[in-house]
Design goal:
The chain is an all-alpha fold and about 80 residues long. Helices cover about 80% and strands about 0% of the residues. The chain has helices spanning about 1-15, 15-35, 45-70. Helix 1 runs antiparallel to helix 3 (about 45-70) and helix 2 (about 15-35) packs antiparallel against helix 3. It is elongated and about 55 Å long.
């Protein structure tokens, strides 16, 4: 299961659907909001926020994989 989870994370990162639609949409929304005069000067915060969303998505996949692994193989212990 660790290999499958790793592949799911890699798929999430490399998926053309995520990269074309998801990441591009996030960055375009961030750029659109930064063009608002009230949000000028918050460029770094915008990139950090988008990065945190992406990180949370990958962490969710990792935690899901660990949960599945624990449920399917309860006798196996990690060393």
């Amino acid at each position: 299961w660790p290999a499958i989870t790793s592949n799911l994370v890699a798929f999430t990162k490399d998926s053309s659907l995520i990269s074309i639609i998801g990441v591009t949409e996030l960055f375009s929304a961030m750029r659109f909001s930064l063009s608002d005069p009230a949000w000028l000067g918050f460029v770094i915060e915008g990139y950090v926020f988008v990065g945190l969303i992406y990180f949370a998505l990958c962490q969710f996949v990792i935690m899901w994989g660990r949960t599945i692994e624990r449920r399917l193989f309860p006798l196996m212990r990690r060393t």
